[in-house]
What we know:
14% strand, 8-stranded mixed beta sheet, alpha+beta
Amino acid sequence: MSLSRKLDIWYNDFGRTLPWRGISDPYRIWLSEIILQQTRIEQGRDYYHRFVEAFPTVADLAAASEEQVLKLWQGLGYYSRARNLHAAAQYIMNECGGMFPSDYEGILKLKGVGRYTAAAIASFAFRLPHPVIDGNVYRFVSRLCGIATPIATDAAYGEFEALLLKQIDRERPDRFNAALMDFGSLQCKPVPDCTQCPFADECNALETGRVGMLPVKVSKAKPKDRWFYYFYLRWQADGKEFTLVEQREDKDIWRGLYQFPLLETGNELNEKQLHVEAARFAEENFHLSPFIFHLSHPFRHQLTHRTIHAIFLEAELPSETIPTTGKYRTIPTRELKNIPVSRLIDRYLQAL
């Protein structure tokens, strides 16, 4: 029995029902695929519904401000996905006459769309025979065929694509790809139950005792430690409480998101060092003489290539002491809930 047929039988019994499955709207399929990059389905489902409600069409998304898009994306991480999504929507409206590209090459031109995403959209929206190849697919196919080529490389992609192009159901490539993805995610897990696998009698990895060794992965670099010290300054004016924020604008993490004024150091500071550095930072940036502040408990935030160690310096300033802004923006503290911030700062605000 062919790979396609076995997957189809398994999919009948165990395939997932998802809101972006069984539809042909390329905009919504694209939206779901971008959200699900580096995101679990359980979390991504809620964001998908929020985006569809806020921006029902690609024209609505293109017309939104980047700040609106980032705010709605808040908590998903990898914010370049949101910025690319927004830029691609504007590209579709401005360069494609508002029509979503209908072929693989055209889809691949969209900012933030790689080979996997282009294949998914092409097959699900337009039923074009392009196999999807993600981490789950790599794991299943490498075990089934005994492929030891390190994944996440161009060589591996070409090898797996050539193999799957021979197997894909050209009449129903959308169903083949959905089954392939679900099988890798639900059945051929990192630690699978091979006794329940319909491919057990032909799996190379199971026969050779290499289930735990495949797929072969390229070793990842150790995450870099960074130390962030945020200044949460508050003061009263005209019966309202205000604070300072700044927008991250460089090519570093969280570009476009807002944060409290930040002092970043190359290493962790002890309490005495922190008082010295905080006084210097406040004098240089806010023209404030030394003031009393309270330290939050430490926050640890893990990113793929970064480990952020953060402490928030909290201070209530006299009402007549309003820091000069410079690159900083003065806002009422109640507005913090309306601007896009990182998950780290959101965690801090939720804990207050």
